[in-house]
Design goal:
The protein is of the alpha/beta class. The protein has three domains: 181 residues, Rossmann fold (3-Layer(aba) Sandwich), CATH 3.40.50.720; 158 residues, 2-Layer Sandwich (Dihydrodipicolinate Reductase, domain 2); 61 residues, no CATH class. Helix 7 packs across helix 16.
């Protein structure tokens, strides 16, 4: 029997949207390398869809918060890959410390995770975080660029790094120019913590309420003008990247301009709030919008929104709201929930991606530096289209870096760097980026 010959066991925790390509990658290499791939999730159907009765796969339906469900799987594994929501990684991380296992996630390294750094280092364990798209591929490609410039004694004074999960042009048929290709809940919380970045030597702190009206535009070859807004806290990466001469440093998210204008209106009206309560029984999306905006006359709702939001004459915000169905008196499901939950349900209906539709991932770095007294600017960009909703560009760019790293470690091509780390070391990014290029995830560089 194959499983009697298993050399390594990989635990994949989470079988959601971003797991499809990762699991396929691991199973593609499983027979040759004599791996068992355990896929654990709370939803048996999600697991079944991903593993397709593959002989090297095992399904484990678990409650990730239950020690009795989780610990035996971690104990069996040689390496753990977590695609769980970020707040659940810590359960697996503590198990990995207990049973001496390495861990890979695509999420930002939380404070709780960072507190395990000393223990992980002492145990010689790698807890690799931010090993996905953004964060992940951005760290690897930027580290490669920075190191190459430093090798020729270049002094970097500006870095702007942009990334966005968008809808491919051939599948773009709504005025928001957006559809879900990743965890929909994340869109509601986007920008909630505000953003920090460095601009001309000064730290800029942008509150949540201003995130989406702060956006400017950049040109991306083949796509035209895209909008961007600052992404989280860029300042914390200054030391990580070793860029002492930097004057401008910003990580940003890409969207189309219409999306940013519409989402800015959502925030201004409190439609993304996760702390309020709205009694939905007998109500509609229209009456919810009236309540949130303070409008008392349904017939004048559009005029009221125009005035309240101080919209300019050429603003498309009202037409974006109209397309969503805000003015159609569509009934709400009875019960009580937050505005964010009401909005999410609406978005799931309107921004759903059909099975044959394609998404698109765009990443672009703009790095300015001095070399031999001359100013230079490097633009490094990558555009990747998905094959379908299930084999999306998002699933590829989030899943493949983790899968490749796991394979390189299990086949002893990489010595795992100890501690709570991100993939900015050459021993990791060089082989991972080389293999990613084989899947079409490669960057084109242009020096001005």
């Amino acid at each position: 029997m194959f499983f009697l010959e298993t050399m390594h066991t990989i635990l994949v925790a989470g079988a959601g949207k971003s797991s499809t390509v990762l699991i396929q990658y691991l199973l593609t290499h499983a027979r040759k390398n004599k791996w068992t791939v355990i896929v654990a999730d709370g939803d048996a159907n999600s697991i079944a869809e991903k593993i397709q009765e593959h002989p090297c796969a095992e399904a484990a339906v678990i409650d990730i918060t239950k020690n009795s469900d989780r610990e035996p799987l971690v104990k069996r594994a040689d390496i753990v890959i977590s695609l769980m929501p970020p707040h659940l990684h810590i359960y697996l991380a503590k198990d990995c410390l207990k049973y001496k296992k390495c861990l890979i996630t695509s999420s930002y390294a939380s404070e709780e995770m960072q507190q395990l750094d000393k223990a992980a280092r002492e145990a010689g364990l790698m807890f690799m975080n931010e090993m996905g798209l953004d964060p992940g591929i951005d760290h690897m490609t930027l580290s490669k660029i920075i190191n190459s410039i430093h090798r020729v004694a270049g002094s970097i004074y500006s870095i702007k790094s942009y990334c966005g999960g968008l809808v491919a042009p051939e599948s773009d048929n709504n005025p928001w120019h957006y559809k879900f290709s990743w965890n929909p809940k994340n869109i509601i919380t986007a920008g909630v913590g505000g953003a920090k970045f460095l601009s001309n030597g000064k730290e800029v702190d942008v509150p949540y309420e201003k995130i989406f009206d702060h956006n400017k535009k950049i040109k991306v070859d083949g796509l035209g003008m895209l909008a961007y807004y600052p992404n989280r806290d860029s300042m914390k990466y200054l030391e990580t990247y070793n860029i002492p001469d930097i004057k401008t440093f910003m990580r940003a998210t890409l969207r189309y301009p219409a999306f940013c204008a519409g989402w800015d209106a959502f925030i201004a009206l409190g439609l993304t709030s996760q702390t309020d309560e709205f009694v939905k029984t007998g109500q509609t999306y229209t009456t919810w919008l009236m309540a949130k905006s303070g409008c008392t006359d349904k017939s004048k709702l559009q005029q009221h929104l125009t005035e309240k939001l101080k919209l300019e004459k050429d603003s498309k915000v009202i037409s974006l709201f109209q397309w969503m169905g805000f003015f159609d008196d569509l009934p709400l499901t009875p019960g009580t929930s937050s505005s964010g939950e009401i909005l999410l349900k609406m978005l799931l209906e309107r921004w759903n991606m059909a099975s044959a539709e394609k998404d698109m991932v765009v990443m672009q770095h703009e790095v300015e530096y001095m070399h031999k007294g001359r100013k230079s600017k490097l633009i490094s960009s990558m555009t990747l289209k998905g094959e379908s909703r299930d084999k999306s560009a998002m699933a590829k760019t989030v899943g493949l870096p983790m899968g490749i790293l796991a394979r390189l470690i299990l086949t002893e091509k990489i010595t795992p760097p100890p501690g709570v780390v991100i993939p900015n070391m050459q021993s990791v990014y060089k082989p991972v980026l080389t293999e990613l290029a084989q899947y079409g995830i490669e960057f084109k560089d242009n020096v001005e």
